[in-house]
Amino acid sequence: MTEIRLHDTMAREKRVFTPADPARVTMYVCGPTVYNRAHIGNARPAVVFDVLARLLRHVYGADSLVYARNVTDVDDKIIEAARAEGVDPSVITKRYEDFYLADMGALGVQAPDIAPHAASHVGQMVAMIARLIATGNAYEADGHVLFHVPSDPGYGALGRRDRDAMIAGARVEVAGYKRDPADFVLWKPSVDGVIGWESSWGRGRPGWHIECSAMIREHLGETIDIHGGGLDLIFPHHENEIAQSRCAHQGAPLARYWVHNGFLSMAGSEKMSKSLGNVVTVADLLAEGHKGEVLRFALLSAHYRQPLEWSDALIAQSKATLDRLYRAVGEAGGVADEGVLNALSDDLNTPLALARLSAIEDGAVLRASGALLGLFGSDATGWFQGEGDARIDGLVAARTEAKRRKDFAEADRLRAELAAEGIVLEDGPQGTTWRRA
Ligand code: AMP
Ligand code: ZN
Predict the structure, then answer these.
(1) Dihedral through CA 289, CA 292, CA 295, CA 301, nearest 10?
(2) How far is the C-alpha of 254 from the C-alpha of 309, rounded, in Å?
(3) How far are the Cα atoms of 112, 142, 213, 220, 223 from residue 28, in angstroms, in the given order?
(4) Helix or strand (DSSP H, E) at 128
(5) Closest listed residue to residue 220, CA positions, set 7, 3, 430, 21
(6) 69 Cα to the center of ligand 2, angstroms
């Protein structure tokens, strides 16, 4: 069997991956908070862990992996977005979850086996919080329930930060009801008109971290093989998940391997942020006419732990390489190349795996090897024919999005731009379709 090695954030080194049960490998990745469109940085963990899932299925068998990616559908940012639009939070979460799945689907990301939603697991969270109170790791204060960080001597092992850095980094509110400034919220009160559930601590809602601990326990067990997410989640989110789960489960560790992807930034600027005005959504990029598979290739062009600089040049280069590979790709039925498999098995070395693809001469082997990376979703004819259509689909999607924002001037401009090319739009109950006049 192929030996997989993964860099484990907890051990701070690459370790040989040995699942507790090779017939049921378990992986959990923290998924989106559904209140806005995913930017290309948000797509990085989705694509990276999609490749890891494909590799695990290849090595252990298609039915041996249970991959869960949650949907955070209870969150203050969702509540604010719902209030701003004057709609129920479920309208916001449904809309943006649908967008998320469509955007990730365009990038060739397969749906995880389980997509647990926080709002449907409040009962499990309440049970875990009650357990943490019973074990002396949590306490009720002022309508809140807090996890008492000093009660867990193992706290901080993942990020290895010192206490002051942790308090500063978590930007935790130093509220009067806290016994220790590092204590974090498990449950908080909801005022009237704000989403909430009845509990023995009053009507309220869960804090963010507890949802992952409770949903992992519910769907995968006390200890899972792999826990993943972006680097920014190491602290406080994963540190807090670890503490909650271990204290609720008599010391059983939450995960055996911790895998974190590095950050994507826009070329020339430090980070992607709304205030810098350089947030690029997956939808924007598709609307510009870039194919999802080109974006996927670009995301995989750097090793997942390294920072990735996003730029037009990177997209253009990815497209040129994929066009070249599509000229060589053959029929299904080949066996994946050892070199590609070995590169991926060595801590998901996707840049090396992509370089190896270019050296493969047999078209069927190339197709099978690309499949490990989720590439070659179309056949060569479709790839080159779809060229123009993908751009039109993108413009139509941009118009739909403009209408949703009530930016009718932009929507009309896009309709006119398409009309000038002889494209006729038809708006119907299922959305907008187009045809050549
Ligand atoms: P969020 O919806 O903000 O909770 O983020 C969803 C996922 O995207 C998390 O795993 C984050 O770590 C990850 N993420 C957010 N921004 C970036 C970025 N610029 N580069 C890479 N990953 C990111
Ligand atoms: Zn999580």
Answers:
(1) -150
(2) 32
(3) 9, 33, 10, 8, 11
(4) helix 122-134
(5) 21
(6) 9
- Cα separation of 285 and 316, whole Å? 12
Q: For residue 316, give both structure tokens.
A: 């253009």
Query: Which tokens sit at 9?
Result: 């954030």
Q: Is 156 left (phi over 0), alpha (psi -120 to 50) or beta?
A: left
Please work out whether the CB of residue 240 comes within 6 Å of at least one atom of ligand 1: no
Could you give the CA distance from residue 263 to residue 104 in angstroms, rounded to a whole number? 18
Atom 12 in ligand 1: which residue has the minimum CA distance?
A: 230
263 lines ligand 1 (CB under 6 A): yes
| Ligand 2 centroid from CA 39, angstroms | 19
Name every residue whose Cβ is closer than 8 Å to that of residue 282 and which is 6 or more positions away in sequence.
37, 38, 39, 40, 42, 43, 103, 104, 106, 107, 295
What single string gives the DSSP state of each residue in 95-110?
HHHHHHHHHHHHTTPP
Q: Are 14 and 7 in contact (CB under 8 A)?
A: yes
Residues 259, 156: Cα–Cα separation, whole Å: 16
pLDDT band at 20 (very low <50, low <70, confident <90, very high): very high
Q: List, for residues 347-392, the tens digit of each pLDDT value.
A: 999 999 999 999 999 999 999 999 999 999 988 888 987 666 777 8
Q: Can you tell me which residue has the tokens 């992509």?
A: 354
Residue 270 Cβ < 6 Å to ligand 1: no
- Predicted confidence band at 174 (pLDDT cuts at 50, 70, 90)? low
